[in-house]
Amino acid sequence: MRRIAVRLAAVVIACALLAGCWDRHELNDLGIVSAIGFDKKGDKIQVTVQILDPSELAGSAGKASGSAAVVAYEEIGVSVDDAIGRLTVKAPYPLYLSHTRMVIIGEEMARKDGVGKVMDYLSRERQMRTDFFIILAKKAKASEVLGIFTPITKIPGNKMYTSLETSAKEWAPVKGVHLVELINDLVTPGKQLALTGIRIEGDRKKGSTPTNIANIRPAAKLMYIGLGVFRGDKLVGWLNEEESKGYKYIQGEVVRSVGFVECGPNEYTVFKIIRAETKRALRMKDDKPFVTIHLRIEADVNEQTCDLDLSKPETIDKLQKMAEKKTVDILTSTVRKAQEIRSDFVGFGNLVERKAPRYWRKHESQWADIFPELEFEVKVSFNIRRVGTKIRSFLQEKEE
């Protein structure tokens, strides 16, 4: 019995020791990072972090002081880890990266140095989760983007995250990319990377002061705009709004969006895209790959300023054909852009690698020269499901 009692006591003591939070940290003793930016600085890397200010977030008696809810610190190093290490002499507490929502890469760095080194650090750092978004600062430095005061949402990193999350579902030209997807695109054969760009719209100098959120119309705003496309890990160009939309259609990533056709001078029929399905097929033509893109869209008429009678089947048929032609043009111009800048961000090479592996193994090293000449076709089926609660616009009724 005595032996049993001794063993039980040992087990109880061991469990008590294991239950202790030996590596705990108080929240007030951590510099919680909400966003990180990376820029090229000569032959070195500049890292900018936004750290939450708990006192400002809490406010006083439910009211904020008007100061920034985050504080930005920046430092230069020969590597990402070196720069972050040097930040410890500026930041008041140890940096805590697990709550990072946004990673922003400056355009100059993305073009000249690429994103590979940054992604290598982020994928290795044990504090980093993988659910943050990665974007590009278009015609700006990441540090400039992280210096803009944002209205309504006091934490800029959270504002950028929720805005991108929402627009990626509701507006086709925008895409949210997480770390795992980015790395997959970098290492997948025959597929190049595409990242959403963010732009500072307005007066950057005024936007970096608290007065930016003191007015109904802020002097500067952060706005997502188009996709930056890569060759390898380096940025080589930007897609406009239509091309960015075409890219997401080709990838089968459109959840919902808005489109329109012009049915007269300054007259439009506007569609709410409610479903889009993309299929890509490959066949060999004269011993060369030939890609077919099949896109099926379902949409509702959401707005109309045209003099059209939507109760007539021939009107619906006409609108569907107009929408099909416009969509074909968008997708075709997107592929042509990819071929023009020699960046297979549409992933045709990956399709060849999966569907014709023997051809791919033989020609993979020449794909950069084959892709710009690759033949393809686009087929679109556009189906209008509903025309709304009114067949005729009240504008038409008013003119009668």
Automatic annotation (TrEMBL):
<dbReference type="InterPro" id="IPR038501">
    <property type="entry name" value="Spore_GerAC_C_sf"/>
</dbReference>
<protein>
    <submittedName>
        <fullName>Spore germination protein KC</fullName>
    </submittedName>
</protein>
<comment type="similarity">
    <text>Belongs to the GerABKC lipoprotein family.</text>
</comment>
<dbReference type="Pfam" id="PF25198">
    <property type="entry name" value="Spore_GerAC_N"/>
</dbReference>
<dbReference type="Pfam" id="PF05504">
    <property type="entry name" value="Spore_GerAC"/>
</dbReference>
<keyword id="KW-0732">Signal</keyword>
<dbReference type="InterPro" id="IPR057336">
    <property type="entry name" value="GerAC_N"/>
</dbReference>
<dbReference type="GO" id="GO:0016020">
    <property type="term" value="C:membrane"/>
</dbReference>
<keyword id="KW-0472">Membrane</keyword>
<dbReference type="GO" id="GO:0009847">
    <property type="term" value="P:spore germination"/>
</dbReference>
<feature type="domain" description="Spore germination protein N-terminal">
    <location>
        <begin position="23"/>
        <end position="199"/>
    </location>
</feature>
<keyword id="KW-0309">Germination</keyword>
<dbReference type="InterPro" id="IPR046953">
    <property type="entry name" value="Spore_GerAC-like_C"/>
</dbReference>
<keyword id="KW-0449">Lipoprotein</keyword>
<dbReference type="InterPro" id="IPR008844">
    <property type="entry name" value="Spore_GerAC-like"/>
</dbReference>
<feature type="domain" description="Spore germination GerAC-like C-terminal">
    <location>
        <begin position="226"/>
        <end position="388"/>
    </location>
</feature>
<keyword id="KW-0564">Palmitate</keyword>
